[in-house]
Amino acid sequence: DAGITQSPRYKITETGRQVTLMCHQTWSHSYMFWYRQDLGHGLRLIYYSAAADITDKGEVPDGYVVSRSKTENFPLTLESATRSQTSVYFCASSDFAGMGSNNQPQHFGDGTRLSIL
Amino acid sequence: SQQGEEDPQALSIQEGENATMNCSYKTSINNLQWYRQNSGRGLVHLILIRSNEREKHSGRLRVTLDTSKKSSSLLITASRAADTASYFCATGNNDMRFGAGTRLTVKP
After folding, report:
1. CB B25 within 8 A of CB B32
2. Which of A58, A107, B43, B103 could form a disulfide with B35 if both were Cys (CB 3.0 to 4.6 A apart)?
3. Residues 18-57 of A with CB under 8 A from B
4. Contact between residue B37 and residue B44 where contact means Cβ atoms under 8 Å apart
């Protein structure tokens, strides 16, 4: 089925470990995004990508690494996890419509709930 | 910092009543989007209103935009229990900014 899928849905890890969250979309959308959602902060943009091999920092990029070797995949890596990175992570995608991505709706996955002990 | 900020933070109404949520933002925009999030799920796009539009309708949803006041409102008419969710406004260019949302509870 077409859509955007995130894996895993739940993850528990320890401080200092590396963890990668996966995101895959089947629409061939140009833009992909990673957000974190914390109580009291709403969604905050971590990184986004306008196309394969093009990534840009969002509002809260520190401690995260992304790559986009293929249009359909946009993994997010926490190289050395910290407790402050405990959160729910959402991946989203949107089509290209000129003048940036904001002219098109974003389509969200169901999130990865990450707990760092 | 958040670009859009919703008000109120929480809203509880009876089924059949109307629900109004407001969004304020800080900088000039090309458009503004509203999203809904059911518990434990990702956000779902509801409606996009462009900066040159003042009002837009989609089913039971009505969105208004006042660029002079840098504010928008989302009205849900004849609410249903299934409308219970959090609602977010979002603005920005490539780096979309979401507010903290309004949590709407519709009691049957």
Report:
1. yes
2. B43
3. 31, 33, 35, 40-45, 48, 50, 56
4. yes
